[in-house]
Design goal:
Blueprint (H helix, E strand, L loop, with lengths): L1 E4 L5 H12 L3 E6 L2 H5 L6 E4 L5 H10 L2 E4 L7 H15 L4 E6 L9 H16 L3 E6 L10 H5 L2 E2 L13 H13 L6 E5 L7 H12 L4 E2 L4 H11 L2 H17 L5 H11 L6 H13 L1
Parallel strand pairs: 1-2, 1-4, 2-3, 4-5, 5-6, 6-8, 7-9
Helix pairs in contact: 1-7, 3-4, 4-5, 8-12, 9-10
């Protein structure tokens, strides 16, 4: 089976490539970097380009049995998503698996979430066989906060309602399953962790895992906005901040039915945040 993976050297793509290779798939990866293409595992074909190269999309989509569509966040995401769906339709793609966000009907204020709902609608209208994966916030995002956590501070604003954060490895496994096994056309799966955790609950888990006292300061959204503006372009910082504002007011909790359905898909319960934190703490301490 031939699978074409977009954003194939990113957070999800890297994990997905391994899962697909373990299942015997022939994998091609779209990446914007020559260096990343050269560093791909043996047997994985690198394609250097992006989702705005319509000639490339037409050729690669036509040669694939299935396409994994993950559009990079940014001001071009609407064009990338909509034109990729059009290319999939014209190329006769047999199965399009699209990376969306958890509950975009409710979380639509951030631009990178709003576009997911539009692309989902285009996919459903295209006639292309599809599966949609609606992802919650990644546990692995905390790796970027390693130094802050080890210093005894957690400023990631997850609010007081609760977010069902997901391990990227579960995302990759779910994607590989729907790409390589039958029975998933027309389905939408919520891919989340097993429990909704508040910012304080996440902080307490890190404290136990690392064996240090950690203060949660994520409720200060004004400070969060200033930090994000120092880290990335202003428009993207505002986009991410709006997501955190939603977490603060509404949370982002998966339902019991969502978790049960994902467990059935994976063949095991999704990884808990406590498991993830304990694993990372062991790596950081070694």
């Amino acid at each position: 089976m031939k699978v074409f993976v977009t954003a194939g050297t990113g957070t999800i793509g890297t994990a997905l490539v391994g899962e697909l290779r373990n299942r015997g798939a022939e994998v091609s990866v779209l990446t914007r970097s020559e260096d990343n293409a050269a560093a791909l595992p043996d047997g994985v074909r690198g394609v250097v380009g992006d989702l705005l190269d319509l000639k490339l999309l037409g050729e690669e989509f036509a040669a694939a049995d299935a396409v994994f569509l993950n559009c990079p966040i940014g001001e071009a995401e609407t064009y990338q998503g909509m034109l990729a769906v059009d290319a999939a339709k014209r190329a006769g793609v047999g199965h399009l698996v699209y990376v969306s966000t958890h509950d975009p009907e409710e979380l639509f204020t951030p631009p990178h979430c709003a576009v997911k709902l539009v692309v989902e609608k285009a996919i459903k209208a295209s006639g292309v066989p599809y599966t949609i994966l609606r992802l919650n916030e990644f546990m692995q995002n905390d790796i970027l906060a390693k130094e802050m956590l080890l210093a005894g501070i957690n400023g990631i604003p997850l609010g007081t309602v609760g977010v069902s954060r997901v391990d990227v490895r579960d995302v990759a496994e779910a994607a590989a399953i729907v790409l390589t096994t039958p029975g998933h056309h027309g389905e939408t799966y919520v891919v989340s962790g097993p429990e909704a955790l508040t910012g304080q609950a996440v902080t307490d888990i890190w404290s136990r895992a690392l064996g240090v006292e950690i203060a949660y300061v994520g409720d200060d959204l004004a400070s969060c906005s200033m930090i994000l503006n120092e880290m990335m372009p202003q428009h993207l910082a505002r986009d991410i901040w709006l997501t955190y504002e939603h977490y603060d007011r509404h949370g982002q909790a998966a339902s019991a039915d969502d978790v049960e359905r994902l467990t059935k898909l994976l063949g095991h319960a999704p990884r808990s945040f406590a498991e993830f934190a304990a694993e990372m703490a062991g790596v950081w301490k070694s």
